[in-house]
Specification:
Blueprint (H helix, E strand, L loop, with lengths): L2 H5 L2 E5 L4 H12 L3 E6 L7 H10 L5 E3 L5 H10 L2 E6 L6 H6 L1 H21 L4 E5 L28 H19 L5 E6 L2 E3 L18 H9 L6 E4 L11 E2 L1 E3 H17 L5 E6 L6 E2 H12 L5 E4 L8 E2 L4 H7 L7 H14 L16
Parallel strand pairs: 1-2, 1-4, 2-3, 4-5, 5-6, 6-11, 7-10, 8-13, 9-14
Antiparallel strand pairs: 9-12
Bound molecules: nicotinamide-adenine-dinucleotide and UDP-4-deoxy-4-formamido-beta-L-arabinopyranose.
């Protein structure tokens, strides 16, 4: 049993109203943890927290706070007895980050800095961080490193990736300054997909979705006309790029495994990176077919030109997480597509037109 469960202390989940964070809260509560959610709702809705309470039959303390708001965040540390932090909060759109990099640097890097300073002040030493396989950049420049191991040299290619890279370095430097205290798990993952099997929580993209599955779901529910497949002339089995897709429920189980690993290694300090992935790459057409099958629809599509920044194969090597965290994926892309379809059909506008609004929260 982990320290936080024994002590009844809280796990602070930053970004807990968002896509991955809300699934993590569900999983944490199911596993007996107490959570407090901090989120500024810049890209999510309080409705997800309300749904979580419905699902788990637990009260979930929610604080509408921006991580850059030191005073607001400090109050959370004062009001709740926090044992550890799972840090999801951040902006994540690659293309947007190239247009407004300063906003990304401020939100992601400064937000994390404030969080770490308060963790130090309040002696909260355990943190699980949502990094991204985007820190590897185009790993295909090292052909013998596909699937990508944690040892692959890093080389992010966009401002979003630079924020993740910088935060990883901040954590490593902080750990090095006091190796007996800090316990950091850096989790790198690429394409979380799917939704909670209840159909009550799922991804709620703002505006036009960037990601393949979110876009396809909106075509299947009639919100968009057709899918644009960004290139079918790659050197792969069907010409479309290969990525490592992971069911969001598997992914959040990996976060809990990491938290447990940090606990098991107390009182020693630790800073370690783990890839969370299936290790099995799927092409865009394979995902397309899986989603058509799950949704019983023939989604119209058109092949267009390559999207800048896309690379041929982004499959991660998950053996370190399997060996050390005793974690591996269990749900394939077929299950993820079915769960996504359930979420999309039950909530055609996601959270956006529903129930409680952000201004009433927190
Ligand atoms: P999301 O946008 O659904 O969730 C992020 C949450 O953080 C949102 O609820 C948002 O309102 C909140 N937030 C953002 N900035 C904040 C701030 N300054 N203060 C307080 N709250 C803030 O995104 P997600 O897909 O759930 O991603 C969660 C994390 O995982 C992010 O850090 C993202 O970079 C990382 N990640 C995501 C993916 C992916 O494809 N979804 C892949 C790899 C890594
Ligand atoms: C997957 C494949 C597209 C949309 C991104 C970020 C990454 C990480 C996860 C946070 C690609 C193709 C897509 C569409 C398409 N995020 N595609 N038509 O690019 O692998 O990863 O999200 O860390 O940093 O870059 O995910 O879902 O956008 O694309 O053909 O409308 O689907 O070309 O091959 P990606 P994606």
């Amino acid at each position: 049993m982990t320290e936080s469960k024994v002590s009844g202390k809280y796990v602070l989940v930053t970004g807990g109203a968002g896509y991955i964070g809300s699934h993590a809260v569900a999983e944490l509560i199911e596993n007996g943890y107490k959570c407090v959610v901090v989120d500024n709702l810049c890209s999510s809705s309080y409705e997800s927290v309300a749904r979580l309470e419905l699902m788990t039959k637990h009260y979930i303390p929610f604080c509408k706070v921006d991580l850059c708001d030191r005073e607001g965040l400090e109050k959370v540390f004062q009001d709740y007895d926090i044992d550890s932090v799972i840090h999801f909060a951040g902006l994540k759109a690659v293309d947007e980050s190239t247009k407004i990099p300063l906003k990304y640097f401020n939100n992601n890097i400064v937000g994390t800095l404030v969080l770490l300073e308060l963790m130090e002040k309040y002696h909260v030493e355990k943190l699980v961080f949502s990094s991204s396989a985007t820190v590897y950049g185009d790993a295909n420049r090292f052909p013998n490193m596909i699937p990508i191991p944690e040892e692959c040299p890093l080389g992010p290619t966009n401002p979003y990736g630079h924020t993740k890279f910088t935060i990883e370095k901040m954590l490593q430097d902080l750990y090095a300054s006091n190796t007996s205290t800090w316990k950091f798990a850096i989790l790198r993952y690429f394409n979380p997909i799917g939704a909670h099997p209840s159909g009550l929580i799922g991804e709620d993209p703002l505006g036009i979705p960037n990601n393949l599955l979110s876009y396809m779901a909106q075509v299947a529910t009639g919100r968009r006309e057709k899918l644009y497949v960004f290139g079918d002339d790659y050197d792969t089995r069907d010409g479309t790029p290969i990525s490592d897709y992971i069911h969001v429920v598997d992914l959040v189980k990996g976060h809990i495994a990491a938290l447990e690993y940090l606990d098991a290694h107390s009182p020693d300090g630790l800073c370690r990176e783990w890839n969370l992935g299936s290790g099995t790459g799927s092409t865009v057409f394979e995902v397309y077919r899986a989603f058509c099958k799950a949704s019983h629809t023939k989604i119209p599509y058109e092949v267009t030109g390559r999207r800048p920044g896309d690379v041929v194969n982004l499959t991660v090597k998950p053996e370190r997480a399997q060996r050390e965290l005793k974690w591996k994926t269990e749900l394939d892309i077929g299950v993820a597509c079915s769960d996504l379809w359930k979420w999309a059909t039950k909530n055609p506008s996601a959270f956006q037109l529903k129930g409680l609004k952000a201004e009433f929260a927190g």
